[in-house]
Fold this protein.
Amino acid sequence: MQLIDSHCHLNLGDFDKDLDRVLTNARNAGVVRIVVPGTNLETSAKAVSLASKYPEVFAAVGVHPHDADKVDVNVLNELKGMAKNSRKVVAIGEIGLDYFRNLSSPQNQRKIFDALLETAIEIRKPVILHNRNADNDFFEMLASKRGRGLTGVVHCFSGSPVFAEKVLDLGLCISFAGNITYPKAVELRESAAYVPIEQLLLETDAPYLSPEPKRTDRNEPANVKYLVKLYAEIHKLSEDDIARITTHNANKLFALGLNDEMALAYPIRDSLYLNITNECSNNCTFCARNASDYVKGHNLKLDHDPSAEELMKAMGDISMYSEVVFCGFGEPTCKLELLKTIAAYVKKQNKKVRLNTNGQGSHINGRNIVDELKGLVDAASISLNAPNAALYNEICRPASGRAYEGMLEFAKLCIASGIKVELTCLDNIGEDNVAACKAIAEKLGAGFRLRHFNRVG
Ligand code: SF4
């Protein structure tokens, strides 16, 4: 398990005496990257110095709103110079607004915040954001930069799910500190449940806000593991899923240099998914591959079509999985022979096989393929997507005509062959269309599942 602590103040005096031991603890807990933010010129310089000494440490430079009164244009220029000149400065932060303690005047806070947002946009680095009791100004200032390539994370998020939605709509990530584990932090956990896993980062905010069960101790990066456990419960994923996805998110946001190899076989929860091709007979408007190469932290962009041997090697020992699912960034039946070979290999090991498909396999292969799948595929999840051919053609953009009819025929034949069938559609096609899709599934004797638009895996 690889973890990233995206916000930890190793540059504060609290860690001066035992920093090496703290970093050893972090490594032993699987923490492979730590981002250390600066809060003023001095702590920014120290973050850069730590980053140059320790390979896993990366720096951000910035001015905390508490320090805004003490900053002039020379300081801002020095920070910009640090950010431009060091490969290991990966962000501008910690910057933002804090009207709770108002240790600097709100006017100066806004002035410095705006100047550093502009710096981040100019030098194309993400921002690490602080907001306390300043929701309106904070949001307005960020919204004013919309469309200019600003990326970043709101750290130690303390707002409601409604405010989380506003921040997420700006394309920003969110991270919560250890206080999310406290018994009374019910609203924070509600906000965390609202954050799509693709926009969630891990952080400790050490030395502050130690999570349960370390609440009385000084916080340190190794404690990020306690958040993994909590998010696994909240998002109903495994701890491995949370670690992989949040590590991918932070690595991507801050360009932390971890490799994301293409995934032929990829676990999510207790299922093993197979990505056997990127070819497809549809070109759906909503296809996840149009938005990103990644699903749940797995890189599904293939640079070649894999062989059966490569797939078996990537699958490894499948004994711990409840099922093997043909899915990936393409239509598995485009590679029918490969699908059959691998399915037979899985069945030999007494594991269940599920096929996630657009249902056009017979159409694609020019013959009825259902008989060939009998005994190899236990269940098929077929994308119905629309209650009629006209809407299907509009949103799925199939390569050839009668794709919709072919998909329904495939579903009927699967059911007749004893393959358990579930028809699916997305929740963005309107209530009436969803109801009509459900009725089609019922009439065929298939199960039905409504999938959330923009949530895959
Ligand atoms: S059928 Fe699936 S893989 Fe193919 S374009 Fe549509 S969503 Fe993408």
Observations:
- Residues 153 and 178 are 16 Å apart (CA to CA).
